[in-house]
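Readers of this paper often ask what the protein records in our data store actually look like. An entry from our holdings is shown next, in its original layout:
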Amino acid sequence: MPHPLSAMLDLSAVAKAICWAIVAIACWNGLPNSARAGEAAGKVYPLRWVFFHTGIRDDADVERINKVIDTAKRHGLNGAVLSVGLDGIERRGADYIRRVEQIKSHCDSVGIEAIATGFSAGYGGGVLGFDRNLAEGLPVVGARFKVADGKARLDSDFPVEITGGGFEDYSGHRVRGCRFHDAPGKVSFVDTQIVREGKAALRFENMGDDPHGHGRVMFEVAVKPRRCYRVSAYIRTEELAPADCFRLQVLAGERSLAPVVIRLPATTDWRQVVIGFNSLDYDKVRIYAGTWGAKRGRFWVDDMRIEEVGLVNVLRRPGAPLKVTDESGTIEYEEGRDFAPVTDRQLNFRFDHDGPAIVIPSGSRIAEGAVVRVSYYHGLRIHEDQVSICMSEPAVYDYWRRQVELIHKHLRPRKWLLAMDEVRMGASCAACKARGLTPAQILGDCITTQYEMIRKVNPEAEVFCWSDMLDPNHNARDNYYLVEGSYEGSWNHVPRDLRIVCWYYEKRKESLAHFSKHGFATLAGAYYDGATLENPKGWLEALDRTPGALGIMYTTWQDKYELLGPFGDLVSQPRPAAP
């Protein structure tokens, strides 16, 4: 069998090889200068950045940041990403702008490029500081309200209950009414001595003996689709660890409807934990209280409850309309005439308060004692305090446009990083539905519009974006948190000269290959507050095998810069080429 290289002796094969060489040269020349430089150098990438995620409340913060910038420069880094609240610059005041300009001036003086970042749809950022009603909303359809004493309040047509949530009905250490509780008599115990109310509570201990740290009780409850609910429980702890091992959560199928993080003191007397959820299209949910990953300690659960709530965290914007009709749905009432303007003055995206009553003024077509149906949209927090914004409401883009112009005026950055990561709600409000687009298209259009805003103020600007929402190996997928639809294919709806900052370490090779295959240049978001430099070393190894790789960033979310010097030395010195 001839060696494959012998084919080059054939004239046609030679011609093909020449053609492919010409194509390769053309493609190489079409890459950004920084990409060609990085690959030509082999192992010193042209972009070597440090990330700042911090406030600049006073001049001491400026001094602290500038000292880190000095360290970065001494160790070969050349860029500083400033996640310092720039997407709220119009509300920050003159002192804030002066401090930002001082940091920019210091960057210029030492030869470090200042890079602007912000414009998060997943975490709300400056948008929610401007107007909380711009949050993404989940729909409530046809909630039943009844008028009494001139006010319409929720009067549910589908009563709900956690049967047995007081743990009063039991036999030995087995509680009746729940679907299950872990290891009765070994992990879970009926306790008649320490109770919140009634005669019994459920105590959990020995969770550390379970390989998953489980200590859970679960109830199954029928609910009405497209309604809003509040779940509560009283919890007592003794030396429970780790801090985030306790959860009060709601599942439907495999989907979490209340993906919140609850942090309890290791030891605390009885305290109420409250969460909220939207039932979406489900008519049955599973409600859990307990631990996942507990290592030690014990806790008690008592008085678990569920109730339908109305107008808690109601959103008021054009793309999240509120509709009040008669009970049959044939007559639609007019806000400002038949009922007073409705707003939740607390609007904190938690469920620790009640929603407003609907005030019925004199002369309204809504009579005393009448039943009305109310449809609206409400906001919801995810994890601890994450609130996503609507990517279809025009006011969002009006706000962002003003911030881009001000950032350009005061910093004139040549590079920008879009903080478009972890967009965990979307495509559920009326503004999104009216567009007839998939979540992937809405997301792609949002990123493209941000990109165009930046290129308008600086046509030569380079725009970067976090990777996860454009990566099928990460969050560009179906059934992502509370998103209605799929983000799959989102990478097809953004500009090809958008640069991608990959940060999912475990999937670094797959992620970099995905973006490289689709023609995107890439940069690695490395480090992530580790104790060693193994993470950056792994990223460098993956970058070395990635066409179009531009560089690497020291990414800290905890202001940990102890390894910045060694990181800079690692990424700024030539290394052997990858085999």
Remarks:
- Confidence is low (pLDDT under 50) at residues 1-41.
